[in-house]
């Protein structure tokens, strides 16, 4: 498999991940996450796969727009770095934020799965 094909596959898998989050489709999301998945929030809170899946609820996320994006692949591992603009609901309010993120994807049984995803607040300076 070529590096270019790997990058395209990772980008496609990440698009499926975002679509599953917006649709609150935990079953589809489950298939895109590695069993040892960890999600690190901008606040520093860490969730495992089951905790993260339980946190995805209908109407929570209104949009997830990727800005700058860089994908690098290394023999079955892909590192994704970028920015995301999100709109979500919390306690009856709409919140808009921009985060920097990093994600580590691993090829497992011929499929790309997200192993780690970390958000950090985007600096305005």
TrEMBL record:
Entry keywords, A to Z: Plasmid
Residue ranges of every copy of the DUF4440 domain listed in the record: 11-114
Pfam family name, one: DUF4440
Name the record gives this protein: Nuclear transport factor 2 family protein
Organism of origin: Ensifer adhaerens (Sinorhizobium morelense)
Taxonomic lineage of the native organism: Bacteria, Pseudomonadati, Pseudomonadota, Alphaproteobacteria, Hyphomicrobiales
């Amino acid at each position: 498999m070529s590096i270019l094909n790997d990058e395209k596959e990772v980008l496609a898998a990440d698009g499926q991940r975002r679509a599953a989050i917006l649709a609150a489709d935990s079953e589809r999301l489950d298939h895109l996450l590695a069993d040892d998945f960890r999600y690190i929030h901008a606040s520093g809170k860490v969730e495992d796969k089951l905790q993260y899946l339980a946190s995805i609820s209908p109407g929570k996320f209104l949009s997830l727009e990727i800005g700058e994006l860089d994908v690098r692949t290394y023999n079955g591992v892909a590192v994704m770095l970028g920015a995301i603009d999100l709109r979500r609901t919390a306690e009856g309010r709409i919140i808009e934020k921009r985060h920097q993120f990093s994600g580590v994807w691993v090829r497992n049984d011929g499929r790309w799965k997200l192993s780690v995803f970390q958000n950090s607040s985007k600096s305005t300076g």
